[in-house]
Amino acid sequence: MTVDDSGSGTGADGRVDPHAAESGDDPLALRLEGLILGAERRYTPFQAARSAGVSMELASRFWRAMGFADIGQAKALTEADVLALRRLAGLVEAGLLSEAMAVQVARSTGQTTARLAEWQIDSFLEGLTEPPEPGMTRTEVTYPIIELLLPELEEFLVYVWRRQLAASAGRVIQAADDEEMVDRRLAVGFADLVGFTRLTRRMEEEELGELVEAFETTAADLVAARGGRLVKTLGDEVLYAADDAAVAAEIALRLIETMAGDETMPELRVGIAFGTVTTRMGDVFGTTVNLASRLTSIAPRDAVLVDSAFAEELIRTGEAPASEAEAAEAAAAAEKEGEEPPVYRFALQPMWQRPVRGLGVVEPWLLTRRVSGGGE
């Protein structure tokens, strides 16, 4: 949003385009922009910053953080843009947010909603806006559809955001102390499709896209249903986290079982680590995350490898025996006392130790479902 010498305007997709003024704005595109934004263009960046009562430098930081390009001296901003600047600046002035935190709020919101908007246009609206009659443009068809869908999608977005906010706040409140609110002990898992690079050479783009979408959808549904949190998807790989090691283990095994039952899906491998994780802007970082990624890369096909800390957590919580010999001893002791033997959901098998670049020597454990001990 800095002032420069470039031309400006808005492209047909509603995004600010510094070069659009050279060829003129499409009237239908402007109508569509006005419909979506709910306001007409009134301000240059300088005027918007002045009306919001913020410096041009801070306004530029906010707008760049939200993912919007510099637009020179174009009159392309609306009353809603001014209000957004005023609100962010007001949170800083009131002491509720530091300036750096306000920029982070702008960046996290911009990045998340940008991806959502791209998906809705590419996958959702594109299928609904095929011109029904020759001579009609896509924009002419899109306008009435967006006019009908916009209020419903807006309300649904706010609903889902509030639900997610409530769930996230609940996790933070349950943290043991203030430090754990940022650096928490979590189970982190990576699930990776085997041989994906080779598939990209053999499959048509449309087929490949359908496969990735099916994998991401299945993984997202399983993670959510079992009480985990999908952190991000990377095409052939998903990253998830869970507060409870048993939850993370159940998700991993369900993923393997589900994918193995689908002939169209490649084989899968999963790696899980347990430990302190730093969370920032919805993502997770740290040695635990790096270890989970390394375990995934060395895991056998259709198998789950976990680190020793994760294995110890399952043993500590009674979800897995330290060994089959220990399980047999516990069962014999219970039978002698006339009690029910302990029931274990998972089994752990120590694997070979190996050096892992940047992490030293790692002792992986093979995680499986214990046939005699549960699962659902």
Give me a quick take on this structure:
The chain is α+β, with helices and mostly antiparallel strands.
- Multimer state: single chain
Q: Number of helical runs?
A: 12
Question: SSE order, as H and E?
Answer: HHHHHHEHHEEHEEHEHHEEEE
Number of strands: 10
Q: Shape, please? A: elongated
Query: Mean pLDDT across all residues, rounded?
Result: 82
The structural class is alpha+beta
* Unreliably modeled segments: 1-23
Largest sheet: 8 strands, mixed
Residue share in helices? 40-55%
Question: Measured on Cα atoms, how large is the radius of gyration?
Answer: 26 Å
Kindly estimate the percentage of residues that lie in beta strands according to DSSP.
15-25%
* Distance N to C terminus: 55 Å
Describe the 3D structure.
With 376 residues, the protein is α+β, with helices and mostly antiparallel strands. The chain has twelve helices and ten strands. The protein has helices at residues 27-37, 45-52, 56-65, 79-93, 99-128, 138-173, 196-202, 205-225, 245-260, 287-298, 308-316, 324-336; strands spanning 183-193, 229-233, 237-242, 268-280, 283-285, 303-306, 346-350, 354-356, 360-362, 365-369. Strands 1, 2, 3, 4, 5, 6, 7 and 10 form an eight-stranded mixed beta sheet that branches. Strand 2 (229-233) and strand 3 form a beta hairpin. Helix 1 runs parallel beside helix 6 and helix 2 (45-52) packs across helix 3 (56-65). The longest helix is centred in the middle third of the chain and has 36 residues, at 138-173. The model is unreliable at 1-23 (pLDDT under 50).
